[in-house]
Model the fold of this input.
Amino acid sequence: MRLTVCEMPNETADFTHAWEGLVEHVGDRKSDLVLLPEMPFYRWLSQTDDIDPVEWTESVRAHDEWITRLDELAPATVISTRPVVEDGKHRNVGFVWESGTGAVDIHAKHYLPDEPGFWEASWYERGDGSFSIAETRHAKVGFLICTELWFTQHAREYGKHGAHIIVCPRATPTSTAPKWLAGGQAAAVISGAFCLSSNLSGTTREGGDFAGVGWIVEPEEGKVLGTTSADQPFLTADVDLAEADRAKTTYPRYVLE
Done:
């Protein structure tokens, strides 16, 4: 299976230009799965605790509009998150897009930070705590959206339920980049699944920044197969999903709880 991760600019004008490059990259590499960053289609709202319902509505509209363009990446499966309103509640929901089915919501982000730059619990509500596996065209996929990466019991559970891939779409700052990669390696080892992450890059209007540094990590030893950078914002790797099946039979995955 051919997997693609990326880092994409936070600001819309820069994102539009980067999108053209991503479409070209995915077409050239004939990717089977593309992971986008967390809520990538509108600027990061949670930078400020000045909650603006109009901005939230605009973000929902922008994501809905961009999702109609995901067929530009077809026939790849595309995974990301988007802002939604469910029963009057605002949520950040992970979805899987495939040609023929469109975007299918899988998992609402449950663990929400609330601090400068990341006022997420102020902007939207947590999900119901279910961590369902998505049965995509090529693989079984589990979601750990950004902060959820640190709640490692869910990586273990995904592994027990046969996940081949854990995706971590995120929006994380430059200062914390090394620990996030370490977390991705740990998630791969805990689950026996490939761990993929794509991140926002660039700055925010309020003075924040994002690290980029998307990654692909293999499932047995947590080796990093590659990372993105400002110079190389797209990364594609060929993997054998049978490695994830084999990894689950080896230490520490086989150890009984």
About this structure: The two ends are 31 Å apart (CA to CA).
